[in-house]
Design a protein that fits this description.
Layout lengths: L1 E9 L3 H4 L2 H14 L4 E8 L5 E7 L2 E8 L4 E8 L6 H10 L4 E9 L9
Length: about 120
Amino acid sequence: MACQLLVDLYGCNSQIVDDPVRIRELSHKIIADINSDIVEECSHHFSPYGVTYIAVITTSHFSVHTWPEYNYAAIDIFSCNEDLPEILANMLKEAFDATDIVYKKIERNISHRKKMK
């Protein structure tokens, strides 16, 4: 079983969500908190504003997409750790200084598929 956690953060601190260095630092902390390591990462700061950060991690992937003009961040965590808890979503809310959060946990049944010959 694997888990995908989709997190929408509203009312974020606009300085945080438009700062690629800060987003990278926050992402590193969250990735470590889910007991994963970064395999490869990249980020882009859009003009006039907005950041996308993506990391391939040892348990799958982690991405952040921001819209500072709306004080919004969308975060996607896909992990082989099916126990991504509500606590992690709340850590993201705190890290991005968000006023509201909506999240969805999707369980991915990776063992259901028939083995390929």
